[in-house]
Amino acid sequence: MLLFFVRHGDPTYNPDALTALGKRQAESLARRLARYGIDEIYVSSSNRAIETMQPTAEMTKKEPVILDWTNESYAYEEQSLPTPDGGRAWGFALPEMKELLTSAEIRRLGAEWYEHPKLKDTKFAQGHLRIKKQTREFLETFGYIWDEDRGMYKNLGFVPTDKKFEYDPSVKKASNKDERRVALFAHHGFGTNFLSAVLDIPFPQVCLKMNFGHTGLTVIEFGEDSEYVAPMMLTMANDGHLLADNMPTAYNNALYF
To answer: How far apart are CA 192 and CA 203, in angstroms?
Structure first.
């Protein structure tokens, strides 16, 4: 299975929508995904994610499924912190939180980074654990069950055989040579938690060292023909569709890139 994770296009956050540029980015991405082929489409309940998804659904003639738990507003409520000017911002963007999340103490905690005492009075860890649980439940619907001891996913549909897997859309079950292509349209802040859970990488390593531009395409392969699967990131936040369509590729409209 190939899992396509897509960040929404260039947005306005109030109101929640795409800009004119964002809509062109979404159309460019749709042409790329239509060439690849998509079997199933999932999308956050936010309007900017839905508007990003719509051209792909139209071109591939796939009915999208809305996943409200992927809406970034929930993650922001849990993982934002007060700022000195009285506002709020993503916790991992604040200097003091960056210092904490890169500290030796956090790194020694590894996968249990959220046990650090300084996080106890925040919802920062609570938000991550919620998304982690829901992400693993989402992957279970495709037949991939997380095995904590192995640090891999058990492929429930694996059968020791040389027969090529044939995808039956009526059966939500993984199997040998699973060729399904699944797209999820969502957000950056949510996505750092999501990819941390999918790839089993400690969240501090993801939120501080990985980022996603508008309509950036991240592809994760569940491709091993075996009983246990270690998903592999094939590309991250790839904006090749924008380059192919002679569109600006500046990261989030930055002037330096």
So the answer is: 7
SS3 content of the chain, % helix, strand, coil (to 5): 40, 20, 35
Residue 122's SS3 state is coil
The encoded tokens of residue 50 equal 């839905």
Rounded CA-CA distance 1/176 in Å is 10
Indicate the pTM of the whole model: 0.91
Question: What is the C-alpha to C-alpha distance for residues 156 and 144, in angstroms, rounded to an integer?
Answer: 6
Long-range CB pairs of 82-90, under 8 A, 24+ apart, other chains included? 90/189
Measured between alpha carbons, how far is 131 from 135 in angstroms, rounded to an integer? 6
- 129-184 tens-digit pLDDT: 999 999 999 999 999 999 999 999 998 877 765 555 555 555 555 555 678 999 99
Closest to 78 (Cα-Cα) out of 190, 203, 205: 190
CA angle 91–93–95, rounded 5-degree value: 95
Q: Is 185 helix (H, G, I), strand (E, B) or coil?
A: strand
Query: Would you say the C-alpha torsion 189, 193, 195, 201 has a positive or negative sign?
Result: positive
Residue 73 to residue 241: CA distance in whole angstroms: 28
Say how far apart CA 178 and CA 226 lie, in whole Å.
11
Residue among 243, 148, 215 nearest 10 (CA): 215
* Residue type (1 letter), 40: E
What stretches of 141-225 show up as alpha helix (H) in DSSP? 188-199, 203-207
- Pick from 37, 59, 42: nearest CA to 6: 42
Predicted confidence (pLDDT) per residue in 29-38, tens digit: 999 999 999 9
